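Entry:
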Amino acid sequence: MKDNVLALFHAATFAAFGFSVYYDLFYTHVPPEVGRVHNAYAGKFKFLTFWDAIAQTFFFFVCLLNDIFGTNSLTSKKRPFIRRFKDFYHAAIGFPVSMFVGLTFWGLMFVDRELVLPKALDPYFPWWLNHLMHTLIMITTVLEMLIAPRNYPKRSKGIGGLAGFMLTYLAWMHFVYYKSGVWAYPVIDVLSVPLRIVFYLVLLVFTLVLYFAGEGLDRLIWGSSSYSVDKSNKKRKQK
């Protein structure tokens, strides 16, 4: 029964985020005179929100594959590859990136929405799509943590995966600016170069904090059992 509920949740979430990516890509067309940023080089693919929506769609598809071909056991001593990949992906990207996208978006919206989602875009970017990509994306990653156990990877691997993802996006964002002269987010345009560097460092530290928050939350929910598999495997190798 529990496995059926997990599969249903994963299938529904995969469909929701898959639809959000599809709708945003093909139906949210912002006129050039309204949104210069949206019509610049790389289109939707310049935004971390869109990257995260794709990443979450892929993640919940992996979850569904794990429901079918893998295992959701908490203390399975021999986890199949799909389960190990799911656990790593959620720890390194799924939880911290989705929380980063949601929290920074709503934080900046509270300060000045013109920095992240100008009011002029409201007729072209529907409210429900906004909540799918910036609100539901946080709720589902927390729900996933509450209802499905995982075995966290070694911190060096998990943090390495997160750093690789974020630095890749940062490099991509600068490449887009090089090609188009347009920053993906207007907030960057109002910062001087020194402040921009500080801004990046603060955000990267924030993602690191979110990684540890995810690890701590997982330990609080599932206890030390979610770490016992890797430890027991290490002991067997030492013998």
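Residues 72 and 148 are 7 Å apart (CA to CA).
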